[in-house]
Amino acid sequence: MALRQACCRGRPGRHLAGTGPVSDAPARPRRRASDAALTDWFAARGWRPAPFQREAWRRYLAGESGLLVTPTGSGKTLAALGGPLLQALALDDAPAKARRGVAAAPRLRLLWITPLRALAADTVRSMQEPIAALGVPWTVAMRTGDASARDKRLARKGLSDVLVTTPESFALMLSYPDAAQLLAGVRGVVVDEWHELLGNKRGVLLQLCLARLRGIVPAAPVWGLSATLGNLEEARDVLLPHRPDAPILQFARRRRMTLQTLLPNEGERFPWAGHLGLSQLARVAAVLQKARSSLLFTNTRSQAELWHRALQSVWLDDPKTLALHHGSLDASLRAAAEAGLRDGTVRCVVATSSLDLGVDFPAVDQVLQVGSPKGMARLWQRGGRARHRPGEAGKVICVPTHALELAEYAAARVALAHGRVESRPPLRLSLDVLAQHCVTLALGGGFEPAQLLEEVRGTHAFATLREEAWTAVLDFIVRGGGALENYPDYRRVIRDDDGCYRVHDRRVAFRHRLSIGTITSDGSVQVRYMKGGWLGSVEEAFISRLRPRERFQFAGKTLELVQLRDMTAFVRIAKAGEGRVPRWQGGRMPLSSELGAEVEAILHEPAESPEMRALQPLLDLQSRLSQLPGPDSLLVESIKTRQGWHLFVYPFAGRGVHEGLAALLALRWGREVPNTFSWAVNDYGLVLTAQSEAWPDAPLMQRLLTPEGLLDDLLASLNIAELARRQFREIARVAGLLPPSLPGRAARSLRQLQASSSLLFDVLRQHDPGHVLLAQAEREVMEAQLDVQHLKAVLTRCGERPLALRRPRSLTPLGFPLWAEAIRGQLSTEDWRTRVKRAAQQLEQRHARNA
DNA sequence: GACCTGCTGCGGGATG
């Protein structure tokens, strides 16, 4: 992004890339770039690279690969590598030599991969100036889905010297027969924001593509740029499996970050449960008034809509200075919000993670985080958006939505001080991605299976790929597997007489290129004005419950539904009133284990902090009624209420794990004593509610918490088949079993998609139960969704710790949010609110009496 | 007087 910061202090060149004659370029030292030559070149332009940059660049010149760790939220980071790399390439005469041959000869020298289209555009922009300064007639093209026709053409024909692209577009390049030829001149690869790809299937796709590239240009250095991670060495190994000792270079020191919490006033009642935090509206509005520009981060899209609406009602400035940004808003609206921040016409943007990522806009004066940040990486990232003076620590202002979040912030402060960040575990053996990649290569000129297997095993993701799985994948792309072979649609690849696998059918080729990539999101309804103009998308389940003329709140506006047609909701601005706010089904964002452990520790031994001081009365109540949780024991509370007999357990392991744990405990307890259990979880713990009398004792708890038989019991307690059915839809999409929606045609509804994927699932289960993708779906449920490894570790730890079994006379502060969560499913929202409110008041009264 | 959970990211091509 900010390439120019590092490499453009020199005299601007006379020629823009690609426009000037070669002979006019400033004299270049010599044909082969050397360290000394570069030093001279930089010195002549008054540019002094930082030591780590010099090191990165020296290593690059030596043909090495590596990982460059750069602080989050700093635009300068790209300069770290991009500058030296461009210089080195420019000093090397080879590109000019290549051009002296046939005019159409591929010139591609540098491949730059970023996970975001917007980042690609920024990168291209920032490269223009340094390249002009170098005085080389280079073309930089962007190859992404939204690139211009010119750029696409340049990329397609290999006529650009530098190509900035996404993993998906890179894969697409490989689907053309001339890919090897186009990439043959590549002399360097940069993978930007590698941490964003490391832990997901996009990263797996990129690993495969890079392995292919290594097959074409084995010597080309590959450099990753990554934010700090808990598993940097692993990140390096995944990117560079062929260079186990590649260097990890650290960008100077990370910026310090501090945290401030908007605390409740003395004596103020503060919610014990809830996630919205609107009770803090006045305080937040006051904080926003004080700064010129702010970002207010929320955790969910509907929360962002609600906060935007609430702020609007108290906003003193021009309403236009308050903007909204989340992933379901149309790109144009998001771009408008970003532009507003850039030109100063917007003072505050309410945003979700859509603004976490690296889009280039100037830092804002302050960053606020509503509710739990859930993990340290997110907090670093969001905090990095704030403007800092050099040497000054960054700051995040935290807005608690319920009392216990105060502890979370106090814990986060400790973790920030220690510079802790989560790991991103890389995926392994995603056979759906492998199947897609194989079809891509079959399309891109074909592949020889033994050779490809070796190449694929050269990646981190498939290093342990077994022969059977490989054969199954090949079988799958050739005939869809046993049950599907009668359907021509699934016979995509043909094994030719020479033993090579190729695609011959043009329709298959077309459909495959349309469905390249691993991001699946289907079944959303586009929202647009009657007069034209797109607003974004909402979920079918939400909009289909609205009647025409009914109002709803979306994109920061009150809209009126006119009609719903072809997966498009036509709307107009409503005259008055407020409407319902859409909800989206998204990721679950559990509290990270790092932060969870920190919370547990701080509750046990409250460090001196404003948050813990504010929380003290609540902690006192917790100790009085029961006891404080802590790392040295496992707190278990059992209580009888009108709803039944509750068992509260607090492992502080995050929602995902608690979900599995709750199901497990319910099953095991039910086995011992016939009873009916329901359960609810949050990030701190879980509650089981029994219909008949049930009091746990220590031996029972030990039996419930044994790691023995975990897998079998999990399989029995959760409807794994049903979970796998849902997981299968994504896998089937990635593997190419579901037809992509064609551009220009109405999107298929979620119901249709579910029907076709569900049907496939059933057919396969019945006729081909060993199908490679079914196994994949089950594995993903166990690993990704239930996080069995983590669950097992948590269970083991629970079993090892001495049990603190308490029977408090009323709900405790820790138990209350879980209890509220448990009865939420049973009651209407209105009843639930009343009930929770009454209960909270009773508890407080009792608390006041006893105090 | 309230105490509404569920993020993000990508992607076509032949023809005029």
Automatic annotation (TrEMBL):
PANTHER family linked to this entry: ATP-DEPENDENT HELICASE LHR-RELATED-RELATED, LARGE ATP-DEPENDENT HELICASE-RELATED PROTEIN
Single GO MF annotation: ATP binding
SMART domains, per the entry: DEXDc (SM00487), HELICc (SM00490)
Entry-linked InterPro entries: ATP-dep_Helicase, DEAD/DEAH_box_helicase_dom, DEXH_lig_assoc, Helicase_ATP-bd, Helicase_C-like, Lhr-like, Lhr-like_DEAD/DEAH_assoc, Lhr_WH_dom
Protein family according to the UniProt entry: Belongs to the Lhr helicase family. Lhr-Core subfamily.
One BP annotation, GO: DNA repair
Top-level taxonomic group: Bacteria
Organism: Novilysobacter ciconiae
Residues in Helicase ATP-binding domain copies: 57-247
Region (Disordered): 10-30
Pfam families named among the record's database cross-references: DEAD, DEAD_assoc, Helicase_C, WHD_Lhr
Residue ranges of every copy of the Helicase C-terminal domain listed in the record: 280-432
UniProtKB keywords: ATP-binding, DNA damage, DNA repair, DNA-binding, Helicase, Hydrolase, Isomerase, Ligase, Nucleotide-binding
Protein name as it appears in the record: Ligase-associated DNA damage response DEXH box helicase
